[in-house]
Fold these 4 entries.
Entry 1:
Amino acid sequence: MKILIFNGAVRKNGDTAQLLQILTEQLQGHEIDTVYCDDKKISPCVDCRFCWKNPGCALKDGMQEVYRKIDNADWIILASPVHFDEISGSLMQVMSRLQMYCMARMMRKEELMQDRKRKGAAILAAGGPGKAEPAHRMMKVLLHTMHASDEVIIHCKGTDRKAVQENESIMDELKQLAERINQGD
Ligand SMILES: Cc1cc2nc3c(=O)[nH]c(=O)nc-3n(C[C@H](O)[C@H](O)[C@H](O)COP(=O)(O)O)c2cc1C
């Protein structure tokens, strides 16, 4: 299986990174690619509107390869810390480049990526106990924009007080997700 992960965290070894590590350690025999959204290789969408009339995106940066990886992915996993109840700015900046898919559909009546079924999941790390409904909603919107289903949102709450590894129910949810992916679900 081809698994494409977007890590929206700024902290390299922070909670989001640790949750992803715990997940990927349990994945066996897959091709895993991780996009680090904060590494500045991908510009945010500049609304140049090239994609309103032309196929593809005019910005020739790291996102061109990521578009190919999205096309070929079996599973897409979006991971982010919760910032003000939303996903991180870094993840949102990279995801803004999905505008290319939206405009292909809306302006040029071209449906991209329908040839392949993708599954999707989201992982959120949050310091507090809040529901972070905007972040949940946004994760679903982004997965659907990539023609991926929203199979599960794993929301690790309370990271300010408890290490992610000590959160047993989250460890269980990560294990279940890894099992599903390993079984070729
Ligand atoms: C700017 C900022 C905003 C935050 N907003 C929220 C929030 O709205 N709700 C919440 O539960 N935690 C919030 N937090 C806490 C982070 O979500 C939490 O520390 C998270 O585990 C950090 O993950 P990371 O180590 O991968 O960056 C915020 C942290 C920062 C820096």
Entry 2:
Amino acid sequence: MIVILGVENEAHAKRVATYLQAKGEEYIFLDTQNYPNSIFLDWEATERNKGNITINNKKIPLSDIKSAYWRNFSDVKYEHFEDGENSEFLSSMLERERRSALHSFFYSLDTNWVNSMHAFDLHKKKAFLTSEFKKNGIRVPKTLITNDKDALIRFYEENDKNIIYKPVLGGAYTQKITDESLTDEQLATLKVSPVQFQEFVDGVDIRVYAFKNTLYSAIIEASTIDFREDMESKLIPVDLPKKVQEDCFKMMKIADLKYSGIDIRLSNKGEYVFIEANPAPMFIHAERVTGFPLTEELIKLLLS
Ligand SMILES: Nc1ncnc2c1ncn2[C@@H]1O[C@H](COP(=O)(O)OP(=O)(O)O)[C@@H](O)[C@H]1O
Ligand SMILES: [Mg+2]
């Protein structure tokens, strides 16, 4: 049995399911939003994989779970429980209980996770990973995380006014800082949230799909700083120097990844600068335009 963490109507989860089916492998979708309302779980915390998970009335012994593909994690639901004055306390306590049980279970389930909850938790500490990569000799952009405008201005000057900003956690477009963008109004927003600033690596994007010991890499041709803003972006297969390939594997080891979509910037001076290693990258578009056998590689990993 292979668990697909995600929902049936999401393209990548669906594609993995289709491939598994074609190979005669049993799989099941796990949408954690349904826990504990309609997903039932028991496990003996002092034993290895002793217990059961019941999804859609199908009871699966934990020892039958061969691997787990982590596509989307929706965590547990917050539900409002009416309890007079104590409603808010009760509702958030129950949410915490659900979360603690589920996360402990994900950490405990001893299976072939692609990728593990530990890897996802690490990925959310992006700036920490950036420092770990640097410590291990991987070239990363100079990075500042701050909510202090004076620190930002100093960093801006120190880096010849050539920096970008993006969210600390990710998920929004990367943009360049200019003298014009440093208005009092903009700087005041730092009081609401810290921001991540980096030296701007002028050049092109490279996306690497990495599987245990195989790499597929392509240059992304886009007309915007952040390639996702350009819907017409193209991927052109490219070979990477040995040292860059080694750094990809090193990065995966540090980030606890068996499979990853690694973002690199190749600067105009020919320097490879590592941006991040994603634990559950999208791959359907890349597979279609490059012909890289990405789904097959992922399936191979799940069945290994
Ligand atoms: N320091 C940088 N210099 C130049 N481009 C960058 C830099 N950081 C990010 N980018 C561009 O923005 C994209 C998104 O940034 P990234 O850190 O990968 O965040 P996300 O989590 O949103 O994917 C990168 O793939 C790259 O194209
Ligand atoms: Mg990225």
Entry 3:
Amino acid sequence: MQLPDATAPSATQTLKVIALANQKGGVAKTTTTLNLAVAFAEEGHRVLCIDMDPQGNLTMSQGIDPDTLERSMYDVLVHHVPIREVIQKREVDVACASIDLAGAEIAMSTMIGRERSLQKALKDIEGDYDFAFIDTPPSLGLLTINALTAAHKVIVPVQCEYLSMRGLIQLQNTLAMIRENLNPNVDIEGILPTLVDTRTLHAKEAIELLEENFGDRVFASRIRKTIRFAEAPVKGMSVLKYDPDGVAAHSYRQLAKEVLSNANR
Ligand SMILES: Nc1ncnc2c1ncn2[C@@H]1O[C@H](COP(=O)(O)OP(=O)(O)OP(=O)(O)O)[C@@H](O)[C@H]1O
Ligand SMILES: [Mg+2]
């Protein structure tokens, strides 16, 4: 992995926050958060991943046991503990979550400014990272709203099947509400076809339908279905580390290039 230095392209940037969101479960939000972040780190950027999902899958996928954490994103959001205190250094830095985060939505519900808890927490570390990638749970509740309020851009992983498309309308409505009330500039960076089974006509048709509806917002990068993505987290690794020369690693490096070139538009 390339180490960031003063000459890295990131040195003059300010923190850019990208949330990975889709209220549908199992569409590769967590997989994309980690592997895209590692691909950015390979390019020399200083990267933080933030686990906003009580399932703690992102935390676990870097080999961290959520049950052993003394403090987690719950304490950051609810008790305003500095986010630095819940960051662990692995392939990339991870702000960790555990199951107690499931209680955060209720604990925050009576707080003034409850939608901005994460945004405020990030102020502390603005100078420490170039990019923060936020993994969100499969819902449009207060945790996801915190992520969308803190974010500059949203990447939406979509499993290529017809039923997944319908959920996108709901996500767009939530984003419109966030723009109106909380974060005027947040927008979709891109829609990422994931779990693509290139052998099936259905996947091809689903991607065509996505492109008809969302045009050039659909990334050119596609993430194909491969068993590597199930194997890597068991070892506590990204696919970029587990199988550095494989197709899976390559597809996330491609995506990183695409996101970075969009940023320079
Ligand atoms: N390209 C892929 N090919 C094969 N399996 C994949 C791929 N991407 C992800 N997976 C597997 O699919 C499952 C769901 O992925 P992941 O956990 O990233 O989805 P998610 O959207 O974060 O789910 P949740 O909504 O529960 O948080 C995991 O077991 C993961 O290993
Ligand atoms: Mg997940």
Entry 4:
Amino acid sequence: MSTYLRELMCVHCDTRFAVGPMSAGCPACRTETFASSVTPTYDYERLRRDLGDGLLREPDEGLWRYRRLLPVQDARHEVTLGEGGTPLVALPSLAGELAAEDVWIKDESRNPTWTFKDRNAAVTVSTAVELGAQAIVVSTSGNYGASIAAYAARAGVECVALTYPGIPEGTRTLIQAFGADLKVVAPEERWEVMQQGMREKGWYPASNYTAIPTNGAFGHEGYKTIAYEITEALGTAPDLVSVPTAYGEGLFGIWKGFDEMKQLGRVADVPRMLGCEPAGGPLALAMADPSQPIARVPRTPTVARGIGGSVNTYVSVAALHASGGTVAQADDEAIMAAQRRLAAEGFFVEPASAAALAGLRTLAAAGDLPEGLRIVLVNTSSGLKNLEAFNTAFSDRELEPATHGAF
Ligand SMILES: [Zn+2]
């Protein structure tokens, strides 16, 4: 199968590398306090010539119809559970509240394991298969671990999931249901255990394993397809895309997708990206001081546990700067209020996902959200993934008995 894939390039220093795993980021600009991920580049000139004004996609459904812009070189290595092709649904009453021209929700909870992580996992596991991996390791206590476990099962590849004491019951059940070997490690030992397994057992890393986090070279390519689908649905780019953010791999991938659409002449401008994190998160600090693009903060508990990080990545800062975007923070109360507001529209999203709306409200309250924008909120995962957070609001209420004739 022909491919337009060319090489890997550092997001920070532009150094080029041959295509390979490179999960620890760019060696050329790494220091004791800094590291950047690398990202695939494609032959955009040839793509532009070959595609003309024609369809970006091939006839397949979902994510793989964009295979010409994905890093898997042989279609026989594509691992799919039918991910992608999620709906973009208009929320007119919310648009009114935010003084926006339009607000849409890109509902990623319709993916195979109910999260946008499936786009990442599909590409990560496919590239692992293409690179000859016999076993995949992932260090996580959240949605990504369950997603990698599902795709590894689909590929028939062994999966080791390293997690921490206190993993949420739902995630644990899913990871085990998909047949992964779930092991508990102390948080301070996880990188060491992972690196040892990579050295001694040939585990292929599907997640970060260094103290200064970098994302793998390929997973964010799955997230790009969210931008392609939005572009195809709207016929253009929106003005603002709001994305819940921890390591910012999704934020970066979506930005890159729009940037590629611009390079291919499909959109006039790349939308501003809004990274939404819990109050006290690291990304706001990293954006505030350009000389310190990697920030660390004490880890504080948050109801939005999927985005409760203590350190950011360089790529999230790079995507925000490149798009003229910004960061918005929201506390637990605001996040839960946003979850209820979306539920009132019929969308039951995870608290981490609700941060996309809570962050927009933070901007609006500060007078930093211009009127008349066309906005896309990315719902990254289903509320069923974290029922505990929502149940606390209801579980202590007595259900009212109803009998025939009681109304
Ligand atoms: Zn570099």
